[in-house]
Specification:
Oligomer: single chain
Length: about 290
């Protein structure tokens, strides 16, 4: 039994219930039934689909102390924004701007920092720079080992948690982490060969999330900077052009996402062949060159 008391002054649930009161509540749980509504069992499977990879250890590691957060709860991504602003100010003024000392706060998510802009191995030769500047496979393998002990389910679980932080708390940090994880996974090319271990559960989770998004939320948040359309279009094209022998499982999940986007948000996600035709085939002296 977890018992909290509502504080009118701070408008928060506080842990100020005595052990004796908690035990009294536990022994009289049946007495609470008359004041409770029936649990909506018809929603249980939908909730499970949104949370099936989230663990108690993950919640304890990522959420602020006590598991409470708000739209103002910060993360490492705020630090990143402040540093970017500092560098921009230095460029504009031509003077040195001291690094701001980040105030220590308990009201922060402990997200691992995912920087999809830096996806190239250290000391890479020019050919690898070209390859992994676009293909996020090396970065996925590296961060998967570093932050999630190689467990793809944990990464997908964090993707689920970030979405709930957006949906429940309307929190920018959750949105930013959700976008980074989606880009990290769906921005891969080489790693598609091991699609079942990562991409199928990621696409299933994304489809479940899109199915639960309010329509206004989808248009105002998910369409921000046209991010979702771009990353999905890139993934569909990469999957179409890949030489994977059995694409059926991945293609089936992409089709489910495509159907959901069309039904709920009136978005048209083109097929790989359509994207390729629209882009055209660049040939001759102006075609991209692979650096050896």
């Amino acid at each position: 039994v977890v018992a909290r008391r509502w504080c009118k002054d701070t408008e928060q649930l506080v842990d100020s219930v005595s052990k004796e009161d908690v035990e009294r509540i536990r022994l009289g749980l049946r007495d609470l039934d008359s004041g409770l509504g029936a649990y909506p069992l018809d929603l249980m499977e939908r909730w499970r689909a949104l949370t099936c990879f989230i663990t108690s250890d993950m919640l304890e590691r990522i959420l602020p102390a006590g598991g409470e957060f708000s739209s103002a709860t910060g993360s490492v991504y705020e630090d990143e924004e402040m540093e970017a602003a500092r560098r921009m100010l230095e460029q504009q003024t031509g003077t040195s701007v001291p690094t701001a000392e980040m105030a220590e706060s308990l009201d922060r998510f402990s997200f691992p920092h995912i920087d999809v802009r830096h996806s190239v191995p250290p000391n890479a030769d020019p050919s690898l720079v070209c390859r992994y500047g676009v293909d996020k496979s090396w970065l996925l393998q590296t961060t998967l080992a570093k932050y999630w002990n190689g467990d793809a389910r944990s990464l997908v679980g964090e993707f689920q948690l970030a979405f709930l932080i957006i949906l429940v708390g309307q929190n920018f940090a959750g949105l930013e982490h959700w976008k980074r994880l989606l880009h990290l996974v769906l921005g891969c090319i080489e790693a598609l060969e091991d699609g079942a271990f990562m991409f199928v559960p990621m696409l299933k989770t994304l489809n479940n999330q899109l199915s639960e998004c309010p329509k206004e939320f989808g248009t105002s948040v998910l369409d921000q900077d046209n991010f979702l359309a771009q990353i999905l279009t890139t993934f569909v094209l990469n999957l179409y052009e890949s030489e994977i022998r059995d694409k059926r499982a991945l293609e089936d999940e992409v089709q489910r996402v495509r159907d959901t986007l069309a039904e709920r948000f009136q978005w048209v996600l083109p097929s790989g062949s359509q994207i390729q035709d629209e882009a055209g085939v660049e040939e001759g002296e102006y075609a991209p060159q692979i650096v050896d």
